[in-house]
Amino acid sequence: MPIQNRGPFEPPTLRTIIEPFRIKSVEPVRMTTADERERLLREASFNPFLLHASQVLIDLLTDSGASAMSSEQWAGIMRGDESYAGSESFWRLRDTMRDLTGFDNVLPTHQGRASERILFELVGGPGKVVPNNAHFDTTRANIEHSGAKAVNLPIPEAASPTSRHPFKGNMDVPALERLIEREGRENIPLVMMTLTNNTSGGQPVSLGNLREVKAVCDRHRLPLFIDACRFAENAWFIKAREPGMHAMSVRQVTRAMFDLADGATISAKKDGLVNIGGLLLIRDAALFQRACNLLILTEGFVTYGGLAGRDLEAMAQGYREVMEEDYLSYRIRSVEYLGEKLIASGLRIIEPPGGHAIYIDAGHFCPHIPRAEFPGQAVVCGLYRIAGIRACEIGSVMAGPRPASPPALELVRLALPRRAYTQSHYDYVAEACAELFARRHSLRGMRIVEAPDVLRHFTARFAEI
Ligand SMILES: *Cc1c(COP(=O)(O)O)cnc(C)c1O
């Protein structure tokens, strides 16, 4: 019954943003002692990627594939149609994505990099150049694997950790014009935009910037593709920060972003709220057909793309849930909350906090460790030692031995898995970071003992200097 007259008892508007779910199934996390962690870290050659997950208390290595699924997603797992061809789960996923993005041509893949591999096998190759606001590491690796060159064109503000530009993920549009002029449009198969921009801090791209990039693409008849792993978080930022966008729903903003694109590569392990899965969206019918042929060659038939029917079902449900604005406001606020606590403790982070992670400026954290000795890796090891927290270096280790352009900053990423941890977990993380910062002068530089050439951060072995 609606309350007609609440009078003096009308409750105040509460401002606390809560986790918009309750917990029905729990997974214990295991405490370790400082001595145990010291031994385990050494056994893992100072690379937390090589730890067993059970040895980690709070795992902020990545937000990828680490989401907690909802009861409706688990129900979808039971409903999954495992037919080889034409699975009902595929059609539900196709309809969900068509509804969100306006794309008719939807291919499932096992994860984002499979979509990238297929796309760049088709359009990449020696002599080609692919510009992006900033390539994610697997995107860059797949472009380079095809023989093409991957170029980052971030706005200058992206290099300044404390510049509070609201859309620090934007592309430098004049730099794109110059690149097209210099390289020749015939050598550029497509222009890419990463939403949100993972490499430069989980920072959003404005709809205005996306429109400007699209206008340049149109002028040169170049396709625009988006790396849309975190399109929902990006849409939330546009709604919250971009002048004139507040009245739009996140769904409308999402549609406006995809309407500008000719295609998208997507890892569903992020905003898809699932543990595995990806998508490749392509508007052009001929290119889509070629992508279907490649998908069948290496991933599976076009209606499952290397996934089980139940995975498609969970993904379809995840993409419906991620559009809920209560979820997105809690999500973005959680990241901001952790960021505010770190700033209050004196750490320098990339500001303003992005959508899925806090990026600690490890160069500022460890001024006594030169870049060649990987200050980010030193902070990562310190966080594990002090509190069993697993973080990820995003700096000279990840950039590899011969980066096309050296990383602007030495960063440590604390990625927040979706719906997996609560506020007290983040209070603990903030306390550990503050404690390590207070003892930062005891951190030592690192050297690489052994590493592959490509994507070395996953498997490199380190020693302390
Ligand atoms: C995770 C990610 C990818 C790759 O997706 P995977 O599912 O890990 O293969 C590509 N681009 C961006 C921006 C990402 O965050």
Descriptive tags:
16 helices; 14 strands; Aspartate Aminotransferase, domain 1; Aspartate Aminotransferase, domain 2; alpha/beta; binds pyridoxal-5'-phosphate; five-stranded mixed β-sheet; 465 residues; three-stranded antiparallel β-sheet; 2 domains
Descriptive overview:
By secondary structure, the protein is of the alpha/beta class. It folds into 2 domains: 34-56 and 324-464, Aspartate Aminotransferase, domain 1 (Alpha-Beta Complex); 71-321, Type I PLP-dependent aspartate aminotransferase-like (Major domain) (Aspartate Aminotransferase, domain 2, 3-Layer(aba) Sandwich). It has helices at residues 34-43, 71-79, 88-101, 112-123, 137-145, 173-183, 207-219, 231-241, 250-259, 285-298, 309-321, 325-344, 362-365, 375-387, 396-399, 423-438; strands spanning 58-59, 106-109, 129-132, 149-152, 191-194, 224-227, 263-267, 278-282, 357-361, 389-390, 392-394, 411-415, 446-450, 461-464. The chain has a 5-stranded mixed beta sheet, with helices on both faces. The chain has a 3-stranded antiparallel beta sheet with strand order 9-12-11. It has a two-stranded parallel ribbon with strand order 1-10. The radius of gyration is 22 Å and the shape is globular. The termini are far apart. The structure holds pyridoxal-5'-phosphate. Pyridoxal-5'-phosphate (PLP) binds next to helix 4 and helix 5.
